[in-house]
Amino acid sequence: MIIDIILALAIIGVALYGMCISDNIIKSIICFNIIQAAIILLFILMAGYTGNDIPIITETVKQMVDPLPQALMITAIVISASITALALMFSVKIFHYYGTLSWRELGSKDVKK
Amino acid sequence: MNQFMYSQILIFTPILVSVLIYTFSKDWISYAVFIAQTIVSLIVVEFWQYSLKEGIVKFTLGGWSKMIGIEFKVDNLSLIFMTMAAIIWWVILVYSWKQKRKDYKFLFFLMFLEGCFLALIQVNDFFTLFVLIEVITIISSILIIYKKDGISLRAGLYYLLFNSIGMTIYLFGVHLLYVKLGTLNMSLIKAQLAGQDFMSVDYSIIQVSFACFFVSMCVKAAMFPVYEWLPRAHTAAPSYVSALLSSLLVKTGVFGLIRILDVYQVTSIYPLIFYLGCLTALSGIIFTISQNDIKGILAFSTISQIGFILMSLGANTDIGLAGAYLHIFNHFTFKSLLFLGAGIIINDYGVRRVTEIRGVFRSHTLLSICMIIGLFSITGAPFFIGFISKSMIKLSIESPLQLNLFRLVSLGSIISYMKFTQIFFGEPVKRSKKNIGQLYSVLFLTIICVLLYYTELKAIMPILSINGTMSTQMINSIEYVNRMLFDGYYLLEYLMYFSIAFVVYKVLIKPNNKLMHYVRHFRISFQDAIVSLLVFLILIIEYL
Fold first, then answer.
1. CB atoms closer than 10 angstroms to residue A93
2. What does the DSSP 8-state code read for residue B72?
3. Dmax of chain B from CA atoms?
4. Which secondary-structure segment (H or E) carries B60?
5. Is-contact B32 B44, C-beta < 8 A?
6. What is the mean pLDDT of residues B446-468?
C-alpha cells in the first residue's frame, strides 16, 4: 500500500516538474491534468484503507470501501474535465490570435504593445 | 419558513433565473434578473434580522449526519459577504443594463456566478468550499475573456490555470485531512483539533494540510509571491467585471483564509501573515506607482489593500478581526466605485493612459466628485470611510516595528494615488454622451460610502456579537475609534502624510525613469509563477 502512495506522489512530482519547465500551453494543461489524476488516485487509494468490498451492505460484506471519497472524486473529475475543456478552448483562441502557444513568446508580445 | 428554505431560495433563485434567461433568450425575460435581485435582497435582510436575534445559523443538507453531510453555516462574516454580493450585483446590473440587456449569455454567467457565490459564503465544509471556488474560478474566467481580444484571452488562461493549480494543492490538503481525521466538516475538525499540540510528530500530516490550505488561499487572495494573475486579469476584463472581481471575488481567498485560521488555531502563523501582508502591500504600492494605465493603478492597488486586510488578520486579536471585516466592506465600496467610474471615463475618452486623460472635472463634474470621495476613502483620509478601518487596524497593532511598517504602508497608499489625480485637472480633450444608468450606480456607491462614516461603528457592535459576546477591550477600542472620527488631530496627521506623499511623488518619482520603465514591464512568466508557488509552499511547511 505504501508503494502505491509513493507512486502517486511521484506522478505529482513529475507533473509539477513538467509544469515548471515546459513552455508550451498545451503541455501545461496536460501537466495540470496529470496532477489532478494523481490526486484522484490518492483519494481512491485512501477509500480502500478500510476494505475492498463494494459499499452495499449485505450479510456477506464485512470490510467495505469507504464510499465518501469516491463520491467526492466524481465531483473533482467533473471540475477537472471542465477546466481542461475551457483551457483548451482558450488556447485555441490564443493560437488564432497570436499564432503561437509558447508562454514566453506571448509574454514578449506584451512588452511590445 | 425556516432558515434552511431561505438559504436554498437565496442560492437557487439567481441560478434558476440565469437558466431561464438563457433558454428563452427573449427581451422581456431579461427583466427577471431584477426580480431575482429583489428576492435575494429581501432574504439577506431576513437573514440579518434572524441572526441578530438568534446568533449563528447552522443546518445540514439532505438529513445526513454531520460527519459525511454538507453543512451550511451563516455567521457574521457570511452575512457581511451576502450584503456585499446583493449590493454589487444590483450595481453591476444597473451599470451594464443598457449595453448588456440583450446579451443573454452574459446575464446567464453573471447570475449563475451570483448563485455560486452566495452558496460559497455559507459553506462549512472543506470539500464543498473547493467545489464552489472552482466553479467561481471557471465562470469568472469566462467573464474576464468576454471582450475576446488577445490580451484578455491570455489573461483569462493565466488566471484559470494558475488558480486551478492553487486549488489542486488545496485538494491535496483535503486528502491529507481526511486520511487523518475522517471528516471534512469544519466545526467537527475544530472540535477535534482544539487543545492539541501542533508541534508534535503526530500532527505533522495536519500541519502539511494546513500549509496546503494556506498557500491555496494565498493564491486566491493574491498574496505576496503569488499575485501575478490579479493585475493581468483585472486590467483585461471589462470595467464592470473588473469591479466585481476586484471588490468581491478576490476576497473569496480572504474568506477561506479566515475560515481556515478559525478551524486550525495555529498561533505561530500569525506574525508570518502580518509580514506577508506588509510585503503584499509594499509590492502592490511599488507596482501601482509605476503604472500609467488607469485600470492598472486600480488593479495593483487592490493588492496593496488586500495587504492591509492581511496585516489586520495577522494581529490575532478580536480588534484585528473586526478591522479586517471593516476593511473588507470598505474596500469593497470604494474599489467598485473607482472601477466603475474609471469605466465611464475610459468609455468616454477612448484611452486608458492617465497621462492622456485630461479635464475630467470639467466634463464629468458629478462623477469627479464621486471619484474624489472614493480616492480620499481609499487613502484613509478622516471624514471618509477608509479612515475607520485603517484606525481599527492601527489599534490592533502592538509592537513599534509593526506600527512603523503600517505607517509606511499608509504613506505608500497615498503616494500611489498621486498619479491618478492628474486626470481631473486641465482642459477636457473630448466630450461625448453620458450613460445615465452608469452614473446612477456610481452615485449609489458614493452615498453608501458617505453614509457609512456615521453608521458603520454603530453597526459593527451587534454584528460582531452574532458570533458570541465581545470582550470589554473590543468595546473600548470601538468607542476609542468613535471618538477619533471627528477629531481634528487626525486631519492634521493626514495632511502631513499627504504633503510628504506629494513631495516624494514630485521629487523622487520621475515618470520616464529607467527603473520605473523596468518595474512597469516586469512580468512573471507562468513557469516562474509555478516555481514561486511551490517554493512558497515548501517554505510554509518548513516554517510551521
1. 18
2. E
3. 69
4. strand B57-60
5. no
6. 82
Say whether pLDDT at B150 is over 50.
yes
* pLDDT score, position B442: 84
DSSP assignment string, B281-340: HHHHHHHHHH--BHHHHHHHHHHHHHHHHHHHHTT-SHHHHHHHHHHHHHHHHHHHHHHH
Q: Is B63 exposed, middle or buried (0-12, 13-18, 19+ CB in 10 A)?
A: exposed
| In the predicted structure, residue B30 carries a pLDDT above the cut 70 | yes
Domain membership of residue B178 (yes or no) is: no
Task: Name the residue range of residue B97's domain.
Answer: 1-124
The number of distinct structural domains making up chain B is: 2
Mean pLDDT of B33-56: 88
Q: Is A68 an interface residue toward B (CB < 8 Å)?
A: yes
Cβ of A32 within 8 Å of Cβ of B148? The answer is: no
Q: Which of B2-6, B65-69, B335-339, B520-524 has the highest mean pLDDT?
A: B335-339
Q: Which domains are present in chain A?
A: 2-112 (1.10.287.3510)
What pLDDT does residue A113 have? 42
Question: Is residue B23 included in any domain, yes or no?
Answer: yes
pLDDT at position B138: 93
Which residues of A are less than 8 Å from B160 in CB distance? 83, 86-87, 90
pLDDT in tens, B525-537: 888 888 888 898 8
CA distance B307 to B273: 9
pLDDT digits (tens, 9 = 90+) for A20-46: 888 889 999 999 999 999 999 988 888
Cα(B307)–Cα(B486) distance, integer angstroms: 27
pLDDT score at B432? 61
CB B115 within 8 A of CB B12: yes
Question: Which among B71, B102, B124 is the end of a domain?
Answer: B124
**Which one of A79, A104, A105, A109 would you mutate to disrupt binding with B, by most B Cβ within 10 Å of its Cβ?**
A79
Q: How far is residue B233 from each of residues B81, B90, B277, measured CA to CA in Å?
A: 22, 22, 21
- The residues of chain A scoring below 50 in pLDDT are 111-113
**Half-sphere exposure at residue B194, Cβ-oriented, CA atoms within 13 angstroms:** 7
Among the listed residues B264, B265, B260, B277, the one whose alpha carbon sits nearest the alpha carbon of residue B314? B277
Per CB-CB distance under 8 Å, the chain B contacts of A83 are: 134, 137-138, 160, 164
Paired with B293 in beta bridges are B353
User: Which residue has better confidence, A86 or B483?
Assistant: A86
CB atoms within 10 A of CB B495: 12
Range B150-179 average pLDDT: 90
What is the pLDDT at residue A80?
Answer: 92
Within a domain: residue B351? yes
Q: Of B98, B124, B150, which marks where a domain is finished? A: B124
Provide the sign of the torsion angle of the four alpha carbons B422, B428, B431, B437, taken in this order.
positive
Chain A hits for B183, CB-CB cut-off 8 Å, are none
C-alpha cell recorded at residue A97: 490570435
Indicate whether B273 belongs to any domain.
Answer: yes
